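Following up on my earlier message about 1,3-dihydroxyacetonephosphate. Here are the inputs again, as you asked, copied directly from the submission form:
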Amino acid sequence: MRKPLIAGNWKMNKTAAEAAAFGEEIRPLVADVEAVEMVICPPFTALHALGARLRGSRIGLGAQNMHEAPHGAYTGEVSAAMLKEAGCGYVILGHSERRRLMGETDEQVNAKVKAALAAGLRPIVCVGESLEQRRAGETEDVVVGQVRAALRDVPQDAAAGIVIAYEPVWAIGTGETPTPDDANQVAAVIRSTLAGLFGEEAAAQVRIQYGGSVNADNIASFAAQPHIDGALVGGASLAPDSFARIVRNTEAILA
Ligand code: 13P
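Thanks, got it. Here's what our run produced:
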């Protein structure tokens, strides 16, 4: 049985002071949640302040990116060990904004996944097709290619710690989404790709999230799908009440 994971990707939003205020507000709202795992991924500069407010709660901490090298002359970058020390359990890798705006390649995402796993961080690997690719009927090919490339040479015993976030690029921040059934079909293709790489048993343990315009009103329809195990949430994760409602509506479908 896979435990759903609701992860908030704050992107470049919230100062450390704003993150601390969120931390204080969210705690009582989800204090009794057990069946859903929760993670917030703030900007690097807010990790410490948010981590301090979340200590002792069931809400985990994650980062939005990292460099694949352990240390060195990489101005502006941070390593997996630095994130681990800052209290992160997860790191988002290969988000479409980084692929598109920062030119991140499949090869880099693969190197980051391996470095994250080696440091004991769980990667949330983002994959998803653009609108052009969807219109051209390439969705499955694109997603399968991204999954295979990101997980190249990842050992089978690391598979269960990996999370895949299926985020169609055209659904991010647009208010548009695929139908839940559509998203589930892509998640099923991702799972069979994982089975090809790691075997059925390991693939059955990997959590596959849906991401793209998720909110408290639509989360249940996605989370109820058999191959979808929670969500990676952008805009709707920024307000404590909204994030808490997404978590609660996910928990409700498990009951
Ligand atoms: P929105 O939820 O704001 O559409 O963003 C999705 C996303 O990119 C999460 O990583």
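One observation from looking it over: The pocket of 1,3-dihydroxyacetonephosphate is lined by residues 9, 95, 167, 172-173, 211-214, 232-236 (CB under 6 Å). Hope that helps, and feel free to reply on this thread.
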